[in-house]
Amino acid sequence: MSISFNNALGIHEQALNLRVKRAEVLANNLANADTPGFKARDLDFKAALNNSLSQSGSAGSMAMAQTNSKHLSTSNDASESLLYRNPTQPSIDGNTVDTQQETAAYMKNAMDYQASFQFLNSKFKGLTSAIRGD
C-alpha cells in the first residue's frame, strides 16, 4: 500500500511555501522603504492558499484544465494574489511603505511559518512512527 503525501501532509506544505513567498514580498517592501514612488505590496494569503488547493485538487473542488493552447493559462502563480497595500500615511515622495506595519506583518508571517513548520514536522514524525510500527 502506498502513502499519498498530499493526503498525509494536508495543507501545511502549500501553506509553508506561501509563507515563504509572502516573506519575500514583505522583505522587498522593507528593503524599498526609502525608494521614492515605491508601492508596498502584500500577498493575499487566504486567496493564494485557496488557489493552490484548488489547483492541486485537495480542496474538494475540481481543478481547471487547459484543453486548448489558446485558452488562458491556469498556472498556480502566487503573484496573482499579490495586491498593493493601502497606505495609512502616504509620504510626499509617493512611497507607501510603512516600516512599522511591514515589520509587524513580517514578524506575524514568521510566527505563522514556524507554526506551519511545526505542524508539518509533527506529520512527518507520525508517518515515521507508523512506518516503524512504534
From TrEMBL:
It is found in: Bacterial flagellum basal body. Its main location: other. Residues 55-100 are annotated as: Disordered. Keywords: Bacterial flagellum, Cell projection, Cilium, Flagellum. The keyword Acyltransferase does not apply. InterPro entries: Flag_bb_rod_N, Flagellar_basal_body_rod_CS, FlgB. Residues 55-66 have a biased composition (Low complexity). Residues 11-39 form the Flagellar basal body rod protein N-terminal domain. PROSITE patterns: FLAGELLA_BB_ROD. Residues 67-79, 86-100 have a biased composition (Polar residues). Pfam families: Flg_bb_rod. It comes from the Bacteria. Structural component of flagellum, the bacterial motility apparatus. Part of the rod structure of flagellar basal body. The basal body constitutes a major portion of the flagellar organelle and consists of a number of rings mounted on a central rod. Belongs to the flagella basal body rod proteins family. This is Flagellar basal body rod protein FlgB. It comes from Alkalimarinus alittae. The gene is flgB.
